[in-house]
Amino acid sequence: MNSALFFDISAGAYIAGMVFYVIYLAFRNKTTGMVATSVTIFGFFSQSTAFLIRWVNSYYYWTASNPLSGFIESLLRAAPLRNLYESLVFFVWSLILIHLIIEFMYKNRSLGAFVTPLAALALLFINVSGTSQEIQPLIPALQSNWLLFHVLLSFLGYAAFGVSFGAAVAYLAMVTESRREKPYIFWSIIVGIFLIVLIAMSIDFLSITVAQRKEFIQNYFLKATLRSSSGGIVATSWVVSIAFIFIVWRFGLGIKKILTSLSITPGMLDEITYKSIAIGFPLFTIGGLIMGAIWANSAWGKYWTWDPKETWSLITWFVYALYIHARFVAGWRGKKVAILAVVGFVAVIFTYLGVNLVLSGLHAYGSA
Amino acid sequence: MEEKAKKDMFDKVWSFFASVRLAIFILITLALTSIIGTIVEQQAEPAKNIALLAKFFGDSTAPTVYNIFVKFGFMDMYHSWWFVGLLVLFSINLIICTLERFPKTLRLVRSPLKPLRENAIKSLPIKKEITIKTNLKKAKDETLNSLSASKYRVFESNEENSVQLYSQKGSYTRFGLYIVHISIILIFIGAIIGLQFGFKGFLNIPEGNSYSFAILNTGPLTKAERFEKGRILDTFEVFKSDITLVANRLGLPVDVLHAKMEKYGIRPLGFSIKCNWYNTEYYSGTDTPQEFQSELVIIENGREVIKKVIEVNHPLTYKGITFYQSSYGMVPNAVGVFVLKTTDKNGVEDTLRLRRGESFIIPGSTLKGTITNFSTALARDKQTGALTTYSETMVNPAVAIEFDSPDMEKFTGWILKRYPETGILPGGSKITFEDYWGVEYTGLQVAKDPGVVLIYIASVMMTIGLYAAFFMSHKKIWIRLTPETSGKAHSVRVSVGGSASKNRLAFEREIERIVSRVSHALEGKHPSKK
Ligand code: HEM
């Protein structure tokens, strides 16, 4: 059986879910909200099926070339968490899982409008990134249980941070009163940038050929717009982007009214932000930092080498440690800590994608 | 007077280092400055970073900016004085902050729980109240039952006409954050121990060779120094780890030899390590490596102590020194031995070890084979159809054998290791190309890090501490039972109050369960929802 069909169905469902959540947020129609939730749950089951099928398939793939490997070992080696593609898929799955749990716990579905776009962004990224979707043989360094748990826990942590990001943005949107306020400017720019990347990636997706999609993402990421080879397109894209951010800034105050009328309170959002960080921080510390270090030590004899990826995960960790202490020990409240939660997730994205996309690009001499 | 001034001074310094504001400042600074080292490449050739800086500052200013960056230690910033200084400050902050708060927490955990007055119970964050038709004795017994079923050790206090039962659970979870903080300090200590008493080196051992030292990275060496280093290494190979003999042979005093070894990064192991063979396993039919393996033997005092096949993720450790499979390659100009397995018509096997040019007789036949050629990676060029070697490493090794027989014309066949069917001969016998031994070396990372144990202990502590700090909570519960009479009916008012250091929602549900157990037992139904 092929997992791709179920995965495509779930991707479609999540994107539909996003649209319904946003419509629900805009028009506050109860039926629309129920549709949004149902579609998202349906997508979640479909993706879970896809995940299991892929696991079974890669189990057979692994045992075919490792006939001596025992059942448990084969199962662990076959866990579909082994490359960029699979980890992003798992990120989306965890994000939706955590979102659904919160939706049921707090009996309020408005957060969906802030979390599902993240899932959509990741899905788009999966499609645009051109990472191979085939089951691949596992190279020797990756044949480690530590690595498996490292990826598993890190991504659950990332997903929890993703939810805290959504809640923190919503919180900032609710508590800022004027367009001149710095926190207002901050959140409107962040949301603007996210939406621009979402749109620019969609344009990439529509304009690149299948052959290009097989290349490494650095070669065409945002090449249709902001990084185009034609100066005219670049200039236009920048102008449009800035105009877009301006629009978000100009009309962003409306979100506050909508959220208020949905009986969402800033206190609730603040609590969701904190709770997701309280889940994400231990997961990320144990899975991301500790297990990553143990894996590196068992594979290379060095648990810490200050390479950019490690350093960025440490930076992410500092930011969230900062959040925890600022909030619980120094008594920071409200906007200041919400901004930290947003910054934390930006660091997460940079740790996972930016290091490969931006920094390795910087170090590719003679190409740029 | 002076005493007091001193004490004031001390208090000032102490509270400066104990302050969380300092912690916040340090965390922000660490996060921001760490970014620099992920942008400029660390410990790289100057030319690389100058080229990088030119992208931001232009070609003409880049070298100047580079020099300024070097002054700030940005090119090796995680080891620069100011970054290390920040980490030291961070540790001091953490230690003092922890010392400052710990006694308070200890007191809090140790102090017994006290009964509360009615008003105080009512003002707790979690509260619940129901009235049950029963008498005080029964109500008390059931409440005790219910609390102990939830694993609470209950205390009791009798007041004028009411009874108060109270208890707490998980007070030790308040230590979670201290465990986390201490584990961070332990990680620093572990890292320092590793730097101080450990080493990281490498060793490339050709198949069949053995060494008794590891090579550490050193600064650049002059030609004469490289020559001398080579001479010391060669002498070591003769005398193994016997430093006195090596020093004698080189005509150097032992301490001079030690100093030179330090300078050239020669680290004696105290035993010898031999590589029996190295092998890359490929996924069948592809050039994708499946496993890198070496068989290593530890030899001490001339005796074999350990023999183990190592792989990536499965190193070998002996006497605190660990050998990791990290690379491999071809030994330049090496002449190896071809290991061939012959199988005759009847299935009788034989293993042959031959050099290039040597001949052998295929058992059970008159066929004479001579090894004439070898390719590390044989392929047929798609366009010309000619045979080519597509890689310098042994990706797809093949041996050419010339066959000669009185009743046949001479012919040459290539036998590929990856495709055993290429070795099937007319007449039913078979030759399998097992290995071309002695031409590859295994690249080992050699590390001794006595600090790792501490790092692992700290990791376990941090895991436990984080779990306690975020997923467990200190829960306190007070239940006050007051008998009430209205007319003839006797009833008991059950007022519950509670507080939890974390996750209030879960505790609310627990209290709900405890109360409903009581009312269920006494009235046979669940309390109506309020
Ligand atoms: C990145 C390193 C650090 C980590 C991972 C860390 C971790 C934690 C954790 C998990 C908590 C418990 C939070 C909670 O209960 O919600 C905590 C609390 C605390 N931390 Fe840290 N911490 C770090 C650095 C520091 C530093 C440098 C200081 C120095 C001032 C500090 C001071 C405190 C204090 C005062 C508390 C609260 C204690 C209390 O509630 O009485 N932490 N920390």
Care to describe what's here?
The complex is a heterodimer of chains A (368) and B (530). Chain A has 368 residues and is an all-alpha fold. Among the domains of chain A are: 1-138; 180-251, no CATH class. Chain A is 77% helix and 0% strand. In chain A, helix 4 packs antiparallel against helix 5 and helix 5 packs parallel to helix 7 (182-207). The longest helix of chain A has 36 residues, at 30-65. Residues 364-368 of chain A have low confidence and may be disordered. By secondary structure, chain B is an alpha+beta fold. Chain B is built from 13 helices and 22 strands. In chain B, the strands form five sheets. In chain B, strands 8-7-6-5-4-20-10-9 form an eight-stranded antiparallel beta sheet. In chain B, a hairpin with a 6-residue loop joins strand 6 (266-282) and strand 7 (289-300). Chain B is elongated. The mean pLDDT of chain B is 87. Classes of the chains: A mainly alpha (368), B alpha+beta (530). At the A-B interface, helix 11, helix 12 and helix 13 of A face helix 2, helix 3, strand 7, strand 10 and strand 20 of B. Protoporphyrin IX containing FE sits between chains B (20, 23, 90, 93-94, 97, 101, 177, 180-181, 184, 466, 469) and A (321, 324-325, 328-329).
